[in-house]
Amino acid sequence: MGAADSTAGTRAERRSVLGSATAIIAAALALQTIYVAYFGGWEPRYHRAVALFVCILVGLGTMPLADRLPARGPAVRALGWVADAAMLAVAAYGCFRFIGAIEDIDNLVVEFTLFDQLAALGSILVVLELARRAFGWVLPAVAAVSLAYALFGENLPWVLQHSGFDLNQTMEIVWYGFQGVFGFPTGIVLSLILIFIVLGAFLEATGAGEALIRIAFGLTGATRGGPAHAAIAASALFGTTSGSVTANVVGTGVFTIPMIKRRGFSAEFAGAVEAAASTGGQIMPPVMGAAAFLMVDLTGTPYLTICLAALVPSLLYYLSLFVSVTIEARRLGIEPLPAEQRPRLQRHDLVASLMLVVPIVTLIYVLLAGRSPAMAGFWAVVTTIVTAAMLNPVLRREPGRIWQALVNGGVAGAKIMLAVATIGVLLAVLNLTGIGLKFALELTALGSGSLIYALLLAAGACIVLGMGMPTLPAYLIIALVLGPAIKDMGLPMLAVHLFVFYFGVLSAITPPVAIAAIAAAPIAGAGPMITAARAVGLAAVGFLIPFVFVFEPSLLLVIDFEWGTFLWILARLLLAIWLMSTGFQGYETRALGLASRSLRILAAIAVVWPAVDGEIFGLALGAAVIAVDRWLAARAGASARAR
User: Fold this and answer.
1) Least crowded by CB within 10 Å, which of 64, 115, 183, 332?
2) How confident is the model at residue 247 (pLDDT cuts 50, 70, 90)?
3) pTM here?
4) How far apart are CA 427 and CA 618, in angstroms?
């Protein structure tokens, strides 16, 4: 017994030392992010190589293999630590050799030994393995398949065949250069995106999220949905600054999901509401989970133009969630709380809301002043700390929250970097083999025959590519791989980017991966796939909206805007929201049968179909179904009263 206690104690000490060291490294990564946002980055080869190595260190420290092996015996755990140490050594050499390789390229002297090639391959595999530990198999599997395709694709048939590349050529592009792992995506994350991930960590740690939840409950206390509506409002506000859907689910769901269940909603519905609402936070301006700033860089569109374009579609998405919750509450017979039981907003709640309002206003003001998004992120972080220190007494009592925010921001940033480095592998292979161009040509050819068919294929590809990934890397990979192909169909660039962004975001609730539903289900005590299915039903209109603004860009307010067209689109979408919500929830003034539900969903799709015949059919079918169902409900009510 004593020996076992001694072994456990030694293990705990080792874990404590590792945790402390990892925390210091993660905090250092966050601090350098704040420094870079204000002063600018270092020479790219040093900055990217050192930063990636630091992220690998953080990844190994927070996700050690020894803790993930099914068997936990001493020998197996020791093997896990040895494997991680070997991975660290390989990555250290690979990053160091990358710096030297760039110097050689600058001097026009490039020669990679077999050892260099294997070190690069090993380093790539380290990145893929850590991405797997952080986000599951989907992303690293895609990257691994692409790497195998570069090496062996010359033997494949049809358009998949390429001219053939050996290990030296592949590693030169994927690792030893600025086209792959250390390419544009890694650079933009370091210079722009990480500061907003750190901002989200500070907003969470300083208490801004808790204030938002209290305000959301106060504003929705008089509605039937109550806490379900509060979850929608809180997730919309919290999610716009958070770069992670799962962080949004966990951050707000631990408060909202139990309260939704206590109001009488089912466990799977409670989890689905939180998952769908948290997912939508990523499409809500002004920050859009930091994707708005990435979109600025990728499209060259001004920040405020992107915010304005995203506004109406995001409001319609959340309106559909509100309507669905109200319909479900009516179906269950849930009434609003009596006035005396409703949570009331106090003065201190409104004051606490400034912990979010001030940083967001600062962010927008700095951008309007003509400064860079990174500089805006820097000042938003500063004002977050200052405002929270002034308004939140808990932060003054527990200043260690600032340190924890740095650690959390560093850990979250490291994981994003590992995902983006993995995406770099795929992008390098697409450029090296030309398969990306071939794919674009095939999709464009499909678009010339049927734009709807091509967009449906693109939407499906977006969902697959986005599975299991946070919003930023999901949008990045989709925009770089699919964006050019859709744009070649003659569609507006901003509409294309918002289209792929929407479907990348919605992949978070789409089975079989559905990371938002998987995060919400354990909190709700429900099955993850049932939760995901309910979330898709709640968010169904969100799958229609991107098609609408691609064909009717007036909805975006900034492309070919006409008031008449805009109001007509809006009216059709509002009808589609009602039809879709009642169809999926199975209730309007009474319970709906399968035929009525199916016809409502069909009418909702038809009413926004980009053809006059479809619109007329959808309007006629929708009006007929609603009229018949209400007539049947009235007749049933009259019969009940007569008895």
Assistant:
1) 115
2) confident
3) 0.82
4) 41
